[in-house]
Amino acid sequence: MRAVVFEEFKTFPTIKDVERPKPRAGEVLLKVAGAGACHSDVAIYNDFEAGGPGAVPPPFTLGHENSGWVEELGEGVEGFNVGDAYLVYGPIGCGHCKACSRGQDTYCENAAKMPYLGVGLGRDGGMAEYVSVPARNLVPLGDADPVAAAPLADAALTPYHAIKQALPHLAGGGKYALVIGLGGLGQIAVQILKALTGATVIATDMKEDAMRKAEEAGAVTVSGGEGQAQRIRDITGGRGVDAAFDFVGVGPTVQTAAASMARLSRLTVVGIAGGTLEWSFFTNPYESVVTNTYWGTIEDLHEVVDMYKAGQIVPEVHRFSMDEALDAYRKLQAGEISGRAVMVP
Ligand code: NAD
Ligand code: ZN
């Protein structure tokens, strides 16, 4: 079968013929319906260095945002019907520590001893015709369209988890949320904020068309550049935002987000671009929190699928064939994808 393989650090992936995986004990082989191209993949093959932060050693097939139909069951697996559609929860922890027990494989306490971080992250992912995954990582899609659902596994799960942790800051009337970076994750973040909170959603991106889409989803947009934090504060009547989500994560965006915060607020940096912030007692709003998040829990993913089925999350999907998969990554890297590119083999 053909697969998009990450072979070496700082090297663009290639399409290769690889052996079709056999499901091992406890695993299910899926015929891939869709595999989303996430900006983190670009970091994996283009930015990270061997042994450095974030580095996932090659070689492996990319694709950590996957959906598919059950093709074959590994030893000991029961309760799945061939042909049924599932979404894949990508993170894979040890499965028995405290974090994994609550479905939060992302924060597995034994991660250092694991041979990989997840599907498409150190172990072969879904940018292929077939992918084998642990049965416990499958979330049923029922009748929902599995191709359009593929981005849910990260582009919706990650903002959902970040927003869920910030909900106490957005409860009640007159609250403001800020979303920076309106790509794959950010557009869905706006939808989730609108569905789960009554907050005014303020959104920004460098791209005009991304801002127009966020407006269509109910956000108020703010242009970038000089004075942006002040323009954001003005919308809030000077008070600042109660929760901010940075889906870019470079220095200028985390600094703008920090400068837009109200007292008692929460800034979640989701973008992995490595931007830094200064902190001091007198320059930061009282009791404001700055944090990061990594992906989400499998329980979160079930809830995301419920929101998708209810029409509250509608990923904007652009389909690419296997032949076009490398183009999808080139375009993503060049900032030419709006919504999510999904490889449909
Ligand atoms: P994307 O390429 O689809 O979207 C990025 C968006 O940010 C684009 O619309 C782009 O125009 C905009 N942008 C870029 N620089 C900007 C700036 N300086 N100011 C305003 N807007 C700017 O990317 P994505 O797949 O949505 O991923 C977003 C980020 O989140 C990436 O850093 C990715 O690696 C990261 N990520 C993190 C997690 C996690 O668990 N923490 C999970 C998935 C993705
Ligand atoms: Zn664990």
Automatic annotation (TrEMBL):
It comes from the Bacteria. Its cofactor is Zn(2+). Pfam families: ADH_N, ADH_zinc_N. Residues 10-343 form the Enoyl reductase (ER) domain. Belongs to the zinc-containing alcohol dehydrogenase family. The keyword Zinc applies. PANTHER family: D-ARABINOSE 1-DEHYDROGENASE (NADP(+)) (PTHR43401:SF4), L-THREONINE 3-DEHYDROGENASE (PTHR43401). It comes from Arthrobacter sulfonylureivorans. Signal peptide: none annotated. InterPro entries: ADH-like_C (IPR013149), ADH-like_N (IPR013154), ADH_Zn_CS (IPR002328), ER (IPR020843), GroES-like_sf (IPR011032), NAD(P)-bd_dom_sf (IPR036291), Zn_alcohol_dh (IPR050129). The keyword Zinc applies. Keywords: Metal-binding, Oxidoreductase, Zinc. SUPFAM superfamilies: GroES-like, NAD(P)-binding Rossmann-fold domains. This is NAD(P)-dependent alcohol dehydrogenase.
